[in-house]
Design goal:
Blueprint: E1 7-10, E2 16-19, E3 22-23, H1 29-40, E4 46-47, H2 48-56, H3 64-79, E5 92-95, E6 98-101, H4 109-122, H5 131-139, H6 158-180, H7 184-197, H8 202-214, H9 218-235, H10 242-253, H11 324-335, E7 342-347, H12 354-365, E8 373-377, H13 390-400, H14 412-423, E9 429-435, H15 438-441, E10 452-457, H16 462-467, E11 471-474, H17 480-491, H18 493-498, H19 500-510, H20 514-526, H21 532-541, H22 558-567, H23 571-580, E12 588-589, H24 590-597, H25 601-613, E13 618-621, E14 624-626, H26 629-642, H27 645-670, H28 694-718, H29 721-737, H30 741-758, H31 761-777, H32 781-798, H33 801-817, H34 821-838, H35 841-857, H36 861-875, H37 882-898, H38 902-919, H39 922-938, H40 942-959, H41 961-974
Parallel strand pairs: 7-10, 7-11, 8-9, 9-10
Antiparallel strand pairs: 1-2, 2-3, 4-6, 5-6, 12-14, 13-14
């Protein structure tokens, strides 16, 4: 006799599937998206072409139909474990050249929603009041944004948007019925949620105003009206329409003593209309965990997901002078009406003050952009490096706007679409400094008329002026009066007025260049007792010119200013400035400066201070130094003059060795069981760093990520293959764990190419493995399979058993992502056998964890728990394994939760939290808090669940707004009437984890 399996499919919120009350893991994001598409069509066939477009848009893989077949096959086996390969199964059927989901109101929440709405409308023949409980039950089936959990860019698909509109229409219909039948209080929670998600929907907001007034909350109703009015004015520039104004007038006419239970209040202008449909049999089966039919939820108006407001502007210059006309010209952008983004292009020669002007205006106008300011240096004319990649800058902007790296879409078009979506109807100021050309700028332009983009460049960027109607502003040199004002602000009026002749000569020699004036003023300020006539005389005797700024007039003598300031340096500081021109940028730290100089850090610290005092370097962040690109050009000229080619080559080699060996040391501490290749000894003077623990290693990587990218590019340009593949290998684990998957894929490709050119087959094998992992993270599964196969073959040919074990471990991880759990178990078993043969305990525990997690995905939680406990036993006493131990405790908690062993699950989660807090991993801590809240709720303690979920929400608001939305949905479902916690909940302090629930089982 065949056992009947109960299935539930959910698309009105996070995409989820339940089999016999247990949630089914749906594997990779594209599998989840495919299933969501079939759910959204509610049992109707979806054409193959439509599925392909939904999955890949305009960039399908080589064989999209075959990819769909694979995804369907994996989904069938996930829904029906044990289903033979190529068997059709019960739930996903081939139909009309595509696929459809076999679904009924008992199995699919969308059909259940429609069935309840149909019955509610039919009940109108017996009186509208009978409809409200059915409509509320239908609305409460939605637990969050439709198709939650699929990639952000895919959630805008028309099929999902249609479901959101359908739900919103029923919200409004229910509000009309509830207001007419004195049941507005039962609907407030639903109305608050919908109003937060549709803040500019005036008919919906009018219904919320009426509902608040109908329940006696007249003041709250008027406050809501005022907030909506302000939002409409700020974001759309319009006043409320007739329906919203009518709702306000009704509230104002209400007698403050009106009882909230009085029938009909607040509904006089909105008659009730219920669509009557024929009667039909229906089921009342509810989804797992759904509220009982008609049960009201208390009003809990949680806000919508917060938009992260970046504040990235560099510091304003206190000594700014002049440029009043130019500031007023740029200010026109704020007042100008536009249908698209407003753009200004500030152009001019190097040192003319483009950045200073842009930053000054941006600070003065920042209050007009309440949603934040974005800034980047595009390094378009950086003498020591290559221009910034706009794709990399765009990813940085997305992170600044609150999108965690692991949530950034793979394709450039999808990233740009997400960027524009985040900025839609927002007021954000975007400052793009030092652009090379229009093509570097275009991907970074917003599409919102509320945004302003200011671009600085030595080029006039006529392409932007012509195609994007940018406002051009070409900067000229400062006038003599403005130059004197600049010196006065820096040196004081008394000193400037004391010797006007000397001031005139300084102004002339500096040629109206703000950078030159700043250097001279710094020299004069450092010697307050020097008469300005002596300063002018020194400047006159060092006359010269940078080739790019040569002029027959002494006003062109920029090199004169630099040379004069340079000659005032001590020999050590002058040499350091010359050698720093060899650093690829964008900035340098004390250890790196010591490496390029080949000197002791203690001595170099004083030299950096001397260069900063001379205004030749800027300490723009604590311990991080940068200089203007013109000064770098000058320093490079001096280096070519004073340092021979051999000495310059040795300095660059020291620098590359410094970064490579430091990255190698950091990687070894951060992820000790992933083997890093042996390195030859660093050249003398490289001074690589060392790290006491994984926290310090991660802190170093986070601070140096941009520099490491530039260093790798410099090594590529030099043809220094060993440094390229060495950096790629050493940084792979950092980039993977921190979600920098796009950058990881790019670096792994560079490293792989370098390893092939260098003939280093071991590095080639490891980099194929790393590239497989990065490709899978970006859901490029065909590429991932190719690379992991190459890695396995190479390690086998090399006889490298440890490398082969790592490759099998990564292969199993990849197979889990695509839903091939049988293959994943086989790969993890192979890795485990090799690790045990080699006696590598740390790596062995990783394989045990992998085996356990695959059993979790298969629903085999007893076997999973056994593997996790064995892994934890192996980790005991090992150093540098806090990440692995924390992850294993969390996974054990998941297994214990599914087994119903809730107290033991809580103990496991608390151990994970302690470790994640020690290493400072906020994202993983929030994930464990989410699991912990689920367990508290399962034990009947919603108060404890609320406490830990609120902490998770605070963390995720900063690190992952999409996951934060899921937590808000859970909190909203709890309502306001939640009792105090019965169980001691987790605080931020490890000391509060003492007790049975917080101790590790022996």
């Amino acid at each position: 006799m065949t056992t009947r399996v109960t299935m539930r499919f959910e698309v009105l919120g996070p995409v989820r599937v339940w089999r016999d009350g247990h949630e089914v893991g749906l594997g990779a994001a594209q599998q989840r998206l495919l299933l969501a598409q079939l759910m959204a069509h509610a049992g109707l066939p979806v054409a193959m072409e439509e599925l392909q477009h939904a999955l890949w848009g305009e960039s399908p893989p080589g064989s999209p139909a075959n990819a769909v077949y694979r995804h369907v096959g994996v989904l069938r086996r996930l829904l029906e474990p044990g289903l033979p390969v190529r068997a059709p199964g019960r739930w996903l059927a081939r139909d009309a050249g595509g696929y459809r989901l076999h679904a009924t109101p008992e199995t699919l929440d969308l059909l259940r929603f429609r069935e309840l709405v149909r019955r509610a409308r039919q009940s109108g023949t017996r009186g509208p009041e009978a409809a409200v409980p059915l409509l509320l039950e239908a609305l409460n089936l939605r637990t969050g944004p439709v198709a939650g959990g699929v990639p952000v860019e895919a959630r805008s698909h028309p099929a999902f948007n249609a479901l959101e509109r359908e739900h919103l229409a029923v919200v409004k219909e229910t509000a009309d019925v509830a207001l007419a039948t004195a049941q507005a209080g039962r609907l407030l929670a639903v109305l608050h949620r919908a109003a937060a998600e549709h803040a500019l929907d005036e008919p919906l907001q009018a219904r919320l105003v009426r509902a608040l007034a109908a329940t006696g909350q007249r003041a709250a109703a008027l406050r809501t009206w005022q907030l909506v009015r302000a939002r409409l004015a700020d974001e759309l520039g319009v006043e409320p329409g007739s329906e919203l104004r009518a709702a306000q007038q009704e509230v104002l006419r209400e007698d403050a003593r009106t009882e909230p239970s009085e029938p009909g209040r607040g509904a006089r202008s909105t008659p009730v209309r219920l669509t009557v449909v024929p009667d039909a049999p229906a089921t009342t089966a509810a989804r797992p965990g759904a509220p009982r039919p008609g049960a009201p939820r208390p009003a809990t108006p949680h806000p919508a997901a917060p938009f992260v407001r970046p504040a990235q502007l560099p510091a304003d210059l206190a000594a700014f002078a002049g440029r009043r006309f130019e500031l007023a010209h740029v200010a026109e952008l704020s007042a100008k009406d536009a249908s698209g983004t407003r753009i200004a292009v500030i152009s001019g020669m190097g040192g003319i003050g483009k950045t200073t002007l842009a930053v000054r205006w941006a600070h003065r106008a920042a209050h007009r952009f309440p949603d934040g300011q974005l800034y980047t240096n595009l390094r378009g004319f950086d003498p020591g490096g290559v221009p910034a990649d706009p794709a990399q800058v765009l990813r940085g902007f997305l992170e600044a706007l609150g999108v965690p790296p692991q949530r950034i879409p793979a394709g450039a078009d999808a990233q740009a679409a997400l960027y524009r979506s985040l900025l839609a109807r927002r007021r954000v100021l975007i400052l793009l400094d030092n652009a090379r050309d229009a093509e570097q700028v275009r991907p970074l332009l917003a599409g919102s008329p509320g945004c302003v983009v200011v671009v600085t460049s030595r080029d006039r960027l006529l392409g932007l002026v012509t195609a994007e109607a940018a406002l051009p502003l070409a900067l000229d040199r400062l006038s003599a009066a403005e130059a004197r004002e600049s010196l006065t602000r820096r040196l004081g009026a008394d000193r400037v007025l004391a010797d006007p002749g000397a001031v005139d000569e300084i102004v002339t020699r500096c040629g109206g260049l703000p950078l030159a004036l700043a250097v001279v003023a710094t020299r004069a300020a450092a010697h307050p007792h020097f008469p300005l006539a002596a300063i002018a005389d020194e400047l006159r005797t060092t006359r010269g010119s940078l080739d790019a700024f040569t002029d027959a007039d002494p006003a062109g003598d920029v090199r004169a200013v630099f040379s004069w300031s340079y000659r005032a340096l001590g020999p050590g500081a002058a040499r350091l400035l010359r050698l720093l021109s060899l650093h690829p940028g964008p900035d340098v730290t004390l250890p790196a400066a010591a490496a390029v100089a080949g000197d002791d850090p203690a001595a170099v610290r004083g030299l950096l201070a001397e260069l900063t005092r001379a205004h030749l370097l800027t300490e723009h962040a604590p311990g991080r130094y940068a200089c203007h690109d013109l000064l770098r050009t000058y320093a490079a000229e001096r280096a070519a003059e004073h340092e021979g080619a051999g000495e310059r080559e040795t300095a660059v080699h020291r620098l590359l060795d410094h970064y490579l060996h430091t990255a190698h040391a950091a990687g070894g501490v951060y992820s000790p069981f992933w083997r890093l290749g042996p390195l030859p000894a660093a050249v003398p003077g490289a001074g690589p760093g060392s790290f006491a623990d994984d926290t310090r290693a991660l802190r170093w990587y986070t601070a140096e990520a941009q520099v490491l990218s530039a260093v790798a590019e410099r090594a590529v340009a030099r043809g220094d293959h060993a440094h390229v593949w060495g950096l790629a290998w050493a940084l792979e684990r950092f980039m993977d764990r921190q979600g920098h998957w796009h950058d990881s894929a790019a670096l792994q490709r560079l490293g792989l190419d370098a390893a092939v050119r260098d003939g280093h087959r071991t590095a080639e094998a490891h980099l194929h493995r790393g590239l497989a992992r990065a490709s899978a993270r970006l859901e490029r599964y065909d590429d991932a399979r190719t690379h992991i196969r190459h890695s396995l073959d190479l390690f086998t040919a090399l006889g490298d058993r440890l490398g082969l074990a790592h490759a099998h471990r990564s292969h199993g991880w990849l197979l889990d992502r695509v839903g091939d759990h049988d293959g994943a178990l086989d790969a993890a078993d192979r890795a485990l056998a090799l690790y045990r043969t080699l006696g590598d305990r740390a790596a062995e525990t990783s394989a045990l964890h992998a085996l356990g997690w695959t059993h979790v995905l298969r629903g085999e939680h007893h076997r999973a728990a056994a593997y996790f406990e064995e892994a934890l036993g192996g980790l005991a006493g090992l150093d540098g394994t806090r990440y692995g131990e924390a992850g294993t405790w969390d996974s054990l908690g998941v297994a214990r939760h599914h087994l119903g062993e809730h107290r033991r699950a809580v103990a496991a989660y608390q151990c994970a939290l302690r470790l994640y807090r020690e290493v400072g991993d906020l994202f993983s801590e929030a994930g464990t808090l989410r699991h912990l809240g689920d367990t508290y709720l399962a034990t009947g303690d919603p108060g404890a669940a609320r406490t830990v979920w609120e902490r998770a929400l605070r963390l995720l608001t900063r690190t992952d707004p999409t996951a934060a939305d899921e937590i808000r949905t859970r909190l909203l479902a709890l309502g306001d009437e939640v009792p105090a916690p019965r169980i001691a909940v987790v605080s931020a302090s490890p000391e509060n984890l003492a007790g049975t629930a917080g101790t590790r089982p022996e």
